[in-house]
Amino acid sequence: MIVMGILNVTPDSFADGGRHNEFDAAVKRGLEMIAEGVDIIDIGGESTKPGAERVPETEELARVIPVIEALAKHGATMSIDTMRASTAKAAIEAGAQLINDVSGGLADELMLATAAQLNVPYIAMHWRGHSKDMNSRAVYGDVVTDVISELQERISAALDAGISQNNLIIDPGIGFAKDVHHNWEIIDSIDQFVAMGYPVLVGASRKRFLGGDNPDQRENATIALTKRLSGSGIWGVRVHSVKPHKEVLNA
């Protein structure tokens, strides 16, 4: 199981906003992750926390491209966390190797075709809308059934756009248009997502459903969740800290 380390080059991300917002701090954290054994560094320049406003494309590019170029010189394996096809293309050209699209291709009609053209691994997350109103969309008949169905639609769209089946990775979208109970139902039924036949990424790190008054207090719960998921057959976890998760998986 791989460990994907989160590197938010943003001032407003929910768990680490502002900590790595400057170029030097972001590169330093990336190098720390490499030293800790990270498998993939997931670099994002736009917060997707509930209520977050979108940033202009130029700002997103200015945040992430220099960091990707710098870490590429150190041999880092990186994904670009973006909903924009143009940012994805620029990031891959700068040295990233995967695209992590929390919208699953819904936010930018050019994304799926761009990912197909770039021929790199593409992570499609379950998504129902932008951060500013996603909480109002957390309405399901049966959350597991509905999320699987909606993910299947994104898989079909990705395949139709020319993305190779071998390049597709899925993410059930913990915390995105889902309440506490929805998140736990998905975790408890993760085997059904694995059974879809694609690598599954789980991004639950420090999210509110884990408890605690602030994100940092949820780190122990995140590590415990990684341990719980270690035998589930998922492909990877997306986390803020790298070393403790690698230690849990290597124990």
Provide the descriptors you would attach to this structure in a database record.
globular; eight-stranded parallel beta sheet; alpha/beta; 251 residues
**Strands across the major sheet, in which order?**
6-5-4-3-2-1-8-7
Strand content: 5-15%
Mean pLDDT: 92
Please report the distance between the alpha carbons of the first and last residues.
Answer: 13 Å
| Structural category | alpha/beta
Number of strands: 8
**Low-confidence stretches at least 5 residues in length (pLDDT < 50)?**
12-18
Taking the sheet with the most strands, its summary is: 8 strands, parallel
What's the gyration radius in Å?
17 Å
Please tally the helical runs, counting DSSP H or I stretches of 4 or more residues. Answer: 9
Share of helical residues? 25-40%
What string, H for helix and E for strand, traces the elements in order? EHEHEHEHEHEHHEHEH
Q: What global shape is seen?
A: globular
